[in-house]
Amino acid sequence: MPSTTRPYRGLSAEQRKAQRRARLLEAGLDLLGTAGCERATMTAICSRAKLTERYFYESFRSREQLLLAVVDQVADEVRSTVLAAVETAPDEPHARARVAISAFVDLLTADPRKGRAAIVESAAAETLRPRRHELLREFADLIVTQARSLYGTAAHAPPRDEINALLFVGGLAELLTAWLGNEIVATPADIIEAGTEQLAAALHR
Amino acid sequence: MPSTTRPYRGLSAEQRKAQRRARLLEAGLDLLGTAGCERATMTAICSRAKLTERYFYESFRSREQLLLAVVDQVADEVRSTVLAAVETAPDEPHARARVAISAFVDLLTADPRKGRAAIVESAAAETLRPRRHELLREFADLIVTQARSLYGTAAHAPPRDEINALLFVGGLAELLTAWLGNEIVATPADIIEAGTEQLAAALHR
DNA sequence: CACAAGTGACATGAGTCGCTGTCACATATG
DNA sequence: CATATGTGACAGCGACTCATGTCACTTGTG
After folding, report:
1. Long-range CB contacts for residues A37-40, cutoff 8 Å, separation at least 24
2. Rounded-to-integer distance, Cα B87 and Cα B84, Å
3. Which residues of chain A does B184 touch, with a Cβ-Cβ cutoff of 8 Å?
4. B contact residues 89-118, partner A, Cβ 8 Å cutoff
5. Are A13-63 and A66-203 the same fold in CATH?
6. A39 at the B interface (CB within 8 A)?
7. A195 near B CB under 8 A
8. Is there contact between A23 and strand D, defined as CB under 7 Å from any strand atom?
9. What integer pLDDT is reported at residue A5 of this predicted model?
């Protein structure tokens, strides 16, 4: 543990560390999103990142912690993307719902690794499951909030709102899972369409 | 491999083999439904069933095959339970939907091991995922069929029906997952209620 | 240039898991 | 009772993962 640092190949110690961390995260996303959670082992991640295990422990305590960071990274991207999309959407309920759902689905299907990491594989490991739930719940909350502000009131008394939102978002997740696993004949556009309609139907009462 | 068999402890060779197989399945369900897919290892299953690995290979080729059998067993139970429930239900759409959903949710929450095995852990392993999808799809098909026969026609052109059904069933699965993981404040009754309403809303157009 | 810090390839040890084999004991049958 | 079969406890092997350590080589600094 050198108390004094120094540049190397034109990069400061912090830059190098950050770069290594990024490479580990990228390798982690790659493996989690293609080989799956089970095969996203520490050895495999280091090998793909072309880094020694020592550098793994420099940035992460354990394999699970890195996977958490990977999922969190995707979740952050989902959050910012969806929020940005919603803000630029017109004030019409149907259009607004479609924009939000579209941003969600598009991001996770455009790069299937991200979709698998955030939706499929995050449901596999016990450690990741809470994050997945949080991600879905966050998106659901956004939908509910939008719906309330547009329709003017809460549709149901709690916790029915939470339940309904999760019921909807879970369905979306299932469709994404099926799409990512080639288990369904549908395009992302189909999924967006179905989701938008179902949401409208659920709110229109 | 004895070509000649003989009774032991009052049981024939086939009876003993079937008994061992049942014990392995029970141990598998227990581990899959509590410890999780990752910890449902062959050694652990044999240990819990109090059988040697030799007897494992007598009935199953691999760990994954046993887990498949466990999930299939639960899926079979779901199928027969739901079908039986639907047949004894009145011919009214809303009631019929409620009965089907109720049978589904009740079975998987009454014995959380079954719920976890069929819904949660079956989404974890690559090998089990197709079975989970099949189970959900089967239930979805049942819903669609019921809806068609009761409302008289297909609501949408394919594959939109399939998409909508999966969207609904996936939501149910998500709610069950959340309930099984104590991630939601809701009773099975709440889930059934929400599911029934959403289904009605989705069909009523 | 000499030397310390940074890096990468590899070795080692502990712990599991899958899988096979051995051996003693239990049980049925002639 | 004697023998063959059924059973259970356990040891051993190879493979893999995690975790730590060693050593040579590269790169920057005085």
Report:
1. A37/A67, A37/A121, A37/A124, A37/A125, A37/A128, A37/B124, A38/A124, A38/B125, A38/B126, A40/A67, A40/A121
2. 5
3. 159, 162-163, 166
4. none
5. no
6. no
7. yes
8. no
9. 86
Distance in Å from D20's C1' to B33's CA comes to: 36
* Confidence (pTM): 0.94
**For residues B180 and B105, is the Cβ–Cβ distance under 8 A?**
no
Nearest alpha carbon to residue A63 among A28, A89, A33, A36 = A28
B202 at the A interface (CB within 8 A)?
yes
A123 near B176, Cβ under 8 Å?
Answer: no
Please give the pLDDT value at position B159: 76
Query: Average pLDDT for consecutive 10-residue bins of chain A (205 residues)?
Result: 75 96 98 97 98 97 98 98 94 89 98 98 96 96 79 64 94 98 96 94 77
DSSP single-letter state for residue A136: H
Tokens of B156: 């949408």
Q: Where are the domains of chain B?
A: 13-63, 66-203
User: Which residues on B lie below 8 Å from A126 (Cβ)?
Assistant: 36, 38
The footprint of strand C (CB < 7 Å) covers: A 2, 4-6, 8, 13, 16, 50-55; B 6-10, 39, 41-44, 52-54, 57, 62-63
Please identify every stretch of chain B with a pLDDT value under 50, giving residue numbers as ranges. Answer: 1-3
Cβ-contact B24, B49 below 8 angstroms? yes
Residue B4: what pLDDT? 67
Tell me if chain B has a CB within 8 Å of the CB of A191.
yes
Tokens, residue A204: 């229109």
Please give, rounded to a whole number of angstroms, the shortest distance from the CA of B166 to a CA of chain A: 7
Neighbours of B135 (CB within 10 A): 23
Residues 6+ apart with CB under 8 A from A46: A24, A27, A52, A53, A55, A56
Q: Which nucleotides of D are covered by protein (CB under 7 A)?
A: 5-11, 16-22, 27-29
pLDDT at A2: 42
Architecture of the domain made up of A66-203: Orthogonal Bundle (1.10)
Q: Nearest chain A residue to B168 by CA: give it.
A: A171
Tell me the helix, strand and coil percentages in chain B, rounded to 5: 75, 0, 25
Fold of B13-63: Arc Repressor Mutant, subunit A (1.10.10)
Instruction: Point out the residue among A123, A159, A185 whose CB comes nearest to the CB of B124.
Output: A123
The token duo for B10 is 């009052």
